């Protein structure tokens, strides 16, 4: 029994398993990128924000905030995608609770997107105005 437990722990910590986790990670990102229109929109906005940050010479802290927000928005969009897929796996019928789960996940993305937009405006707008 003890030997089986040690073997199980050893298998959970193997390098092969660790490397496979990256494969699954990239498969998930690829799936979301090819199936979720919002991921593509968010990705384009992220690229524009990064380029604008370089052009407007935002400082280190502002760059850090922008990159952090991009990561949070993209990660939450992936969680939304996972929740939608899970709900669809359980039921494809129109059920009120399935709608609640999908709407709440989408709402979470909406909230962080609005916050990211507000912070982006707070960072970029003064620098854009200063150009004129």
Q: Please, could you describe this protein's structure?
A:
By secondary structure, this protein is mostly helical. It has one domain (36-130): Helix Hairpins, CATH 1.10.287. It contains 5 helices and no strands. The mean pLDDT is 90.
Output the keywords.
single chain; 132 residues; mainly alpha; Helix Hairpins; 5 helices; extended
Strand content: under 5%
- Give the uncertain stretches in residue-range form: none
The second-level CATH architecture is Orthogonal Bundle
Largest sheet: none
Q: State mean pLDDT (0 to 100 scale).
A: 90
Distance between the termini: 74 Å
Please render the helix and strand layout as text.
Layout: H1 2-12, H2 15-35, H3 37-55, H4 60-90, H5 96-130
What's the short story on this structure?
The protein is mainly alpha-helical and 132 residues long.
